[in-house]
Amino acid sequence: MSPSYPTPPFTYVEVGATREPDGPVPAGYHRFELRRRLGSGRALFETAAEQILAYRMQRAAGIFARASTPVASPGTRLTVRLGVGPIGIEAPCQVVYVLDEPDRRGFAYGTLPGHPEIGEELFAVEYDPADDSVHGVIAAFSRPGTWYARLGGPVTRMLQHAIGRRYLDAITPAR
């Protein structure tokens, strides 16, 4: 049985395509993936999972504006703010699915009308019982949805990498 997804007016038809970590990128999209070892232990995995579901990554990256629920769940409306200081835009998203597997947890949101990009982004943590390691994972597929996002081109990709690193920094324990 295939999973069901909320049916709001997402700006793309490939809803849920980030669910498979090594799945193909939908045609016409840019792939982004960042994976980092956070440390080891089931306790770290559980803590990181709780933080991800409570939007810790978005808050720490300074882009969180608001969410319709305190913890990510399918259908949650989430608004992120992109920009610096008074120059910025609010970008609406909606949680597509939540991962709640024994060794993989997190959520993905998809873009809604008004977002400058078109696509989906996954925020997850994975536990490998073979070596007790914990990894943070950010995976996305996107393409520009507005003229200014197209104009940003390579700069937009650099910003995506910088924000991705900030996401993972938010759940990486202090060393």
TrEMBL record:
Annotated ranges, domain DUF1990: 11-169
Origin superkingdom: Bacteria
Entry protein name: DUF1990 domain-containing protein
Source organism (scientific name): Nocardia stercoris
Organism classification: Bacteria, Bacillati, Actinomycetota, Actinomycetes, Mycobacteriales
